[in-house]
Write a structure and sequence with these properties.
Length: 255
């Protein structure tokens, strides 16, 4: 199983579960299977505490993923799944564990809302893990890597907008609207980006006419309804706005 979006720890879990299955499905005359069964019997049936051996570590993974009953029945009855079926089964189990980790992270930090589409976060979901849409776009079109980085930076609240300052220092000084410089102000209000906003509106209008009314969700494709071609157009426009803002700030500071 490719490491992909899974952590190294879960990849090790997967490999250990696969290795244990490989040992258990060897012919009964094989010395390695005999040794594995001999070591597992006191662990499974007598709950003995043994030294931290590789066999014990493998069985700890079985317990971690609640596979004890399944593996015990296989050992007792001598009827095993095929290797392919076992690989698919444990891959789903490991991915479910990773989904739970992502779900906890996303629910803890609002800035990670954009990452919710890394996986289907519904309870009991078994869909494949997948990266966020901007990572996918950057992979499809490497020339848009910089633009996609900008989109992810904005979506995850990793920008340098003045809203993070206190009091009057949070006000946008690039326009005369006297509004706090938030992401919404940057995208929809600041008068310095009127030309870019006209271009952006042409893309947003296509989705607004289909019942999608939250322009921010459309821009960052939180719901996955925006085509990759329109995502490319949006990212180019937003990136131009972000670079323009940096230049205006530099001019304001006299640099």
């Amino acid at each position: 199983m490719p490491l992909g979006m899974n952590s190294m720890t879960l990849r090790i879990d997967y490999d250990m579960l696969l290795m244990l299955f490989g040992l258990l499905t060897l012919p009964i005359s094989n010395i390695y299977k005999q040794l594995t069964i001999t070591r597992l019997i006191p662990i499974i049936f007598f709950k003995e505490t043994t030294w931290d051996s590789p066999i014990r570590q493998m069985w700890d993974r079985v317990r971690k993923y609640n596979l004890t009953e399944l593996l015990t029945n296989m050992i007792v009855n001598g009827i095993y799944l095929t290797k392919g079926s076992w690989k698919r089964f444990i891959k789903l189990e490991v991915n479910d564990k990773q989904r739970a980790i992502y779900r906890t992270t996303c629910n803890t930090y609002r800035r990670h809302d954009v990452c919710l589409n890394i996986c289907d976060v519904k309870d009991g979901a078994t869909g494949p893990l997948r990266p966020c849409v901007w990572w996918t776009l950057a992979k499809m079109k490497p020339e848009l890597l910089t633009q996609c980085k900008t989109m992810m930076r904005l979506a995850t609240d990793s920008h340098d907008f003045r809203v993070k300052n206190d009091g009057i220092n949070s006000t946008c000084f690039l326009c005369d609207m006297f509004e706090i410089e938030t992401l919404d102000h940057f995208l929809f209000s600041c008068t310095n980006f009127s030309d870019e906003r006209i271009k952006l509106a042409k893309i947003l209008d296509k989705y607004s006419s289909n019942g999608l009314t939250d322009n921010k969700n459309i821009i960052f494709n939180f719901n996955g309804n925006v085509t990759y071609s329109d995502m490319a157009g949006i990212s180019n426009i937003i990136h131009v706005m972000y670079i323009k803002r940096a230049k205006l700030i530099s001019q304001y500071a006299g640099n």
